[in-house]
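Practice problem. Given the sequence and the SMILES for manganese (II) ion, write out the predicted structure.
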Amino acid sequence: MKFFHLSDLHIGKCLNGYSLKENQEEVFRQIVEAARQYRPDAILICGDVYDKSVPAAEAYTVFDHFLSELAGIEPSIPVLIIAGNHDSPERLNYASAFLERHHIYLSVLPPEREEEYLKKIVLTDEYGPVNFYLLPFLKPGYVRGLMAEERAGCTYEEAVSFVLKREKIDREERNVLLSHQFYISGEDRPQVCDSEQPSLTVGGLDEIDIRVLEDFDYAALGHLHGAQRVGRESVRYCGSPYKYSVSEERHEKAVTLVTLGEKGKEPEIQYLPLHGLQDVRRERGTLEEILRRGTEETRHDFVSVTVTDERESFAMREQLEEVYDHLLEFHMDNDRVRKTLEETGEEIPVLRPYEAFCQFYQAVRHGAMSEEEEAVMKKIIEEAKEEDA
Ligand SMILES: [Mn+2]
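Answer key:
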């Protein structure tokens, strides 16, 4: 049995104010293409479908189109989806009964009552059944109602372990778990990156040791945006399909293609690379070097630039923006900046002349400029620019 393992689509996400819609649509197009080519028996989407709990109308349209394209493949491929911490259960669950008729299975909340269990989808191949258990993102509080009084106030690990233990998992059969949590393996901590930061709990309260996943032949995880295994080969994060921060510049985004053989055999893992229209990366060097490197191929990428010139010239940001049309950040790294950093412990952002003057004015006059003053200042800066040119 083969399946695609995906997670953390974060549809609707912006990068420093830039919409990622076109890049997301491009990677989804590549996933649909790969599904037609490789014909997996299932497609797993392990949480964080949307970036926000109240997605914009446009985000719904993007996901709707992706699902429609997947559902249009004949014969049909079941799509299994769980909610992540970014998803609103109610919103993600919209039209789920209708979607099931098209073999799209959603699970958005863990069991809340005694008679409720995890959604389980059984698919069969030549070696027998494979049981897919859908465990949506949970916090300990979500399952408090299920647990005995004395266990209320438990940890993430206890809550997940409790939910899994209630299931009658047949260890003779092959079992796959979909889960969106922060898993660790003993002392081994997985690699994290900037785009997950707000989701992870400070102090590691949300950490769950993979020993709770013993019954599973494969654990398809979501939450972390870098593809990696946790402890054993068959417990994996597939990562996000696109780079959602500069800290991911070295990530190779891909669909994880899992081939599950007979019971007891290690699953086979393959990566099917995904490439957005624009890369997300860093540029570092002198202004001249960086400007020179901006070719037609590279100048539309999302770039975080660090300029190392000791001598700072006028309107560096403007010069960069003329070549790089998707500038994410602009930093200086030279003796002056390092010295100020040492003295104040703060990095000084590089501002446009007008922004710099606004801050200066605010600091000196303890108030904002009047409209008239703003107009005067803008005119002065324009004139200075013309003279400089
Ligand atoms: Mn995520």
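Check your answer against the key. The domain at 2-273 is CATH 3.60.21.10 (Purple Acid Phosphatase; chain A, domain 2).
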